Structures are given as structure tokens and as C-alpha cells.
């Protein structure tokens, strides 16, 4: 049996324990992650840090969509984007179509398809923009509000379960980190 990986891990553990004799496993994992993936450590693994972070963010996005799909399967909505469109329209009187699409960081064709589905299902209504005759505005309808109210508690449970492994401090820190990555912070 080849023990090179174990020997490498033991060498890291010995280095960590010399500097942190009171350390625990969680602290060691954080320290080891920093040793392997921080920019100042230009080892073989440092260049893969951003790739792993990007992969993990994509994975989390897919996992959240997968978990929400079971709730949405019993509704008139087919995606979290549709839910989010309704949620935003419920908090503001109306949006221009392209404003709503930009708010969700979607390409125009994808956003237009979402709006078409919501219109077809009677969950939103479309009307002319009084300030710009070329633009159309959308607003939530009463059936859209009813659908939203029916889904909100179910999706809230999904979201709570999704972040359950994080304590409140970790949730706040993670939210701030995501804001930095998305350009909001």
C-alpha cells in the first residue's frame, strides 16, 4: 500500500501542531486549506483555488434548484427564476420587462421566456409604459399573489434547510462574501 498521501498529511499536521498546540480538527482544516490554496503560497494547488470556488458556487446553485424543484412541481411555476420574478413584482408596483430581467442577471431571451410563461399562466399582467412607448411593463396579478403566498412558506423551509449547517455568524459572513463576489459589496 502507498502511504505517500498519509505521510504528506502527517507532515502538515506536525507543522500545524507546532504552531497551534491547542488546535482542533476544524481549525486544522481551515489552516490546511489556507496552506494549500492561498495566493501567497504559490504551490501546485494555489492556482486551482479560484477554480474550486467557482465550481462550488455552481454546485450550490444547482443543489438549491434541485431542492426547490420538489416544491415547484406542485405549482404553476417551473423555476426559482419565475418565483423570484413574482417575489420582486410583489414588492414593487411594476417593472419594465428589461429592468426585471437585468435585476435577475439573465440574458434577454431567457428573461423574456420566463415572462411569457408567467403571462400565459395569468400570474403577471403586461401593460404599456407611459414614459417609453416602446417599452412594456409587467405587474403581479391576484392569481400571482396567491401562488406566491402558497409557495413562500414551503420554499422558506427549503432555504432554511439549505443554510442550516451555518450558524448565524457564518451566514452573515457568507452573505458578505457572496456580495463581494457578485459586485454588490
What keyword list fits this structure?
single chain, Arc Repressor Mutant, subunit A, 2 domains, 8 helices, 66% helix
Task: Give the tally of β-strands.
Answer: 3
Count the domains.
Answer: 2
Low-confidence stretches: none
| Residue-averaged pLDDT | 88
N-C termini distance: 49 Å
Largest sheet: 3 strands, antiparallel
Query: Which class best fits the helix and strand makeup?
Result: mainly alpha
User: How much helix, percentage-wise, in residues?
Assistant: 55-70%
Question: Beta fraction of the residues?
Answer: 5-15%
CATH class assignment of the largest domain? Mainly Alpha
H/E series, N to C?
Answer: HHHHEHHEEHH
CATH topology of the largest domain: Arc Repressor Mutant, subunit A
The number of helical segments is 8
Q: Strand arrangement, largest sheet?
A: 1-3-2
State the fourth-level CATH superfamily of the largest domain. Winged helix-like DNA-binding domain superfamily/Winged helix DNA-binding domain
Gross CATH architecture of the largest domain = Orthogonal Bundle
- Which shape, going by the Cα principal axes? elongated
Radius of gyration: 23 Å
Quick take:
With about 180 residues, this protein is mainly alpha-helical. Helices cover about 65% and strands about 5% of the residues. It contains 8 helices and 3 strands.
What does this structure look like?
- The protein has two domains: 1-46; 61-162, Winged helix-like DNA-binding domain superfamily/Winged helix DNA-binding domain (Arc Repressor Mutant, subunit A).
- The chain has eight helices and three strands, in the order ααααβααββαα.
- It has 185 residues and is mostly helical.
- The model has no long low-confidence stretch (mean pLDDT 88).
- The protein has helices spanning 4-19, 25-37, 49-72, 80-91, 97-103, 108-120, 142-163, 168-182; strands at residues 95-96, 124-128, 136-140.
Amino acid at each position: 500500500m502507498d502511504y505517500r498521501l498519509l505521510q504528506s498529511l502527517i507532515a502538515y499536521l506536525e507543522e500545524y501542531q507546532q504552531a497551534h498546540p491547542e488546535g482542533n480538527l476544524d481549525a486544522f482544516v481551515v489552516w490546511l486549506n489556507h496552506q494549500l490554496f492561498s495566493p501567497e503560497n504559490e504551490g501546485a494547488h494555489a492556482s486551482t483555488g479560484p477554480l474550486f470556488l467557482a465550481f462550488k458556487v455552481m454546485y450550490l446553485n444547482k443543489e438549491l434548484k434541485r431542492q426547490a424543484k420538489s416544491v415547484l412541481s406542485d405549482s404553476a411555476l417551473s423555476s426559482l427564476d419565475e418565483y423570484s420574478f413574482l417575489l420582486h413584482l410583489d414588492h414593487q408596483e411594476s417593472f419594465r420587462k428589461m429592468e426585471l430581467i437585468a435585476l435577475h442577471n439573465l440574458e434577454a431571451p431567457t428573461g423574456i421566456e420566463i415572462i411569457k410563461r408567467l403571462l400565459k399562466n395569468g400570474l403577471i399582467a403586461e401593460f404599456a409604459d407611459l414614459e417609453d412607448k416602446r417599452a412594456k411593463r409587467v405587474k403581479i396579478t391576484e392569481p400571482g399573489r396567491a401562488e406566491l403566498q402558497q409557495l413562500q412558506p414551503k420554499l422558506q423551509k427549503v432555504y432554511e434547510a439549505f443554510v442550516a449547517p451555518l450558524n448565524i455568524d457564518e451566514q452573515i459572513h457568507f452573505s458578505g462574501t457572496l456580495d463581494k463576489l457578485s459586485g454588490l459589496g
